[in-house]
Design goal:
By secondary structure, the chain is of the alpha+beta class. The chain has one domain: Nucleoside Triphosphate Pyrophosphohydrolase. Helix content is about 15%, strand content about 35%. The protein contains 2 helices and 10 strands, in the order ββββαβββββαβ. It is globular and about 65 Å long. Keywords: Hydrolase, Magnesium. InterPro entries: NUDIX_hydrolase-like_dom_sf, NUDIX_hydrolase_dom. Its cofactor is Mg(2+). It comes from Streptomyces xanthochromogenes.
């Protein structure tokens, strides 16, 4: 008997903006759905000819989640997120490549940041060494992602960093959230 041929992978893309002020603090938004603080970002939009690129997604999501223009720069991190649960709180029906870009906001616009009330609970400039280790602030996936972005941005690690999330052992893929 011939083994079944594996189906083609269904993979999505997402992007996040690593926005760091001169004093080293990074912009994080408080996600209403999860209760955690994360870098501004989200999934790429579908569209003709493959939809938007991860860089375009970073800029669009940055604008949507801050209310100000975000300009994506160099690629800092690529993270592989498998099918199933990602960040221990959301069921993802497809695997996903998450791209984190160094991003900027015009200094004149910093006092104009506003988050969409239906999606986010607020925003704040966090010390990137404090946010990941403060209980209840960030989940493990986003803590690792922020740490990698800080390392690459500072020059302590080569760009881009590559991270992989692995499915938890004995995790049923069809398990609900």
């Amino acid at each position: 008997m011939t083994p079944a041929k594996p189906a083609p992978a269904m993979v999505g893309s997402a992007a996040a903006a690593f926005i760091q002020r001169a004093d080293g603090r990074v912009l994080l938004v408080h996600h209403a759905g999860t209760g955690y603080w994360v870098m501004p970002g989200g999934k790429t939009d579908d569209g003709p000819f493959g939809g938007e690129t991860p860089r375009e997604c970073c800029e669009r999501e940055g604008l949507e989640e801050t209310g100000v223009t975000v300009t994506a720069g160099r690629l800092l991190v690529v993270q592989w997120l498998p099918i199933g649960r990602n960040g221990a709180h959301a069921h993802n029906p497809f695997a996903c490549h998450l791209f984190v870009f160094a991003a900027t906001i015009c200094p004149d616009a910093l006092d104009q940041i506003q988050v969409p009330e239906d999606e986010l609970l607020g925003w704040e400039w966090w010390d990137p060494a404090v946010a990941p280790v403060t209980p209840g602030v960030m989940d493990a996936t986003n803590s690792r992602l922020l740490a990698a972005a800080v390392q690459v941005s500072s020059g302590a690690a080569p760009a881009p960093a590559y991270l992989e999330e692995r499915p938890r052992p004995n995790h049923a893929l069809n398990e609900g959230s």
